[in-house]
Amino acid sequence: MSTFAKGGARQPAMDGNNKRPKIFFLGAGRIAVPVLAALAAAPEVELVGVATGVDRPAGRNRKPTPTPVGEWAAAHGLEPLKPSSVNSPDFIAKLRELGTEMIFLVSFGQLLKRDILALPPLGCVNLHASLLPTHRGASPIASAILNGDAKTGVTFMRMEAGLDCGPVYLEEEFPLSGDENVDWLEDQLGALGAAHAAATLLRIASGELAGRPQDHAAASYAGKIHKADGDVDWREGAASLARKVRAYHPWPGMNFAAGSGPDAKRLRIAAAAVADDAPPGEPGQIVVASKSRWVVACGEGSLELLLVVPEGKKAMSGADFLRGANLKEKDLVLTLP
Prior knowledge:
By secondary structure, the chain is of the alpha+beta class. The chain has helices spanning 32-41, 68-75, 89-97, 114-117, 140-146, 182-206, 238-247, 318-323; strands spanning 2-4, 22-27, 46-51, 56-58, 63-65, 102-106, 124-128, 136-137, 151-158, 168-175, 221-222, 254-258, 265-274, 286-289, 294-297, 302-310, 316-317, 333-335. The protein folds into two domains: 2-221, Formyl transferase, N-terminal domain (Rossmann fold, 3-Layer(aba) Sandwich); 227-335, Formyl transferase, C-terminal domain (Methionyl-tRNA Fmet Formyltransferase, Chain A, domain 2), CATH 3.10.25.10. It is 23% helix and 26% strand.
């Protein structure tokens, strides 16, 4: 479902001699890759450059690793720039040198300040992975899952000083079933944004689409996710924990300790479901430990551990883990310290 913005201020349109807007792409995260690929292949726009984040240490060897956008761009001959700050005078001068008419940003990770926002005559456009003004901020995809939303989507918006607060050009909705993991949903929203990117940017550049002001009073915010957010607190409700398992997959994961003392095992919950048929118990207490099920009581309801990942091992069913562990009904599992 498409929602087209009407009214509001318009950007200066392209003149009749310039039918292909010169677009500079800023992106880093996984969701940005299909959008960049679609834009690079679109004949109706001219991609004049790509910039992404600097390489960061990753993996056990801490090897400098490019962002997903950096990796894709290099593999397709686009030679991405990697400025430590896009607000630096040198980078802004580079944009001018390339004749940049519009900046398009997707999951970039740096804030654009006034000088760069004012540079392109056709404006700066952001593709945000929510239906604004809901879930402004750093983690909109996870927040839609955590909130139990019935739908999410992507929003093309004009960038202004402030956090995801600019006028909306276009929204595309995506229904949620309540079973999505965040990495799967990110791929779907990336494909959704990619399907509409080139045509939408062309309509913005031509003046056909105008920005609709957001309802700031209705805004909600999606803060940055931290590693500690993945520590299981069994005092929470089972439904909330089940949503966290999906929202924090694969990182930071939902983690807890099974067992006690030197025999305790660190586990990540890879899949879980609310167990409405489980007997009662205190939070963190195993209430079902059978050949086919592992269920733990929560602050409200109980959570069935369908798939777990022991530290340093491959994923296995909760029941399979129990068969090799010294755990039984009424034992407690713990939140990690």
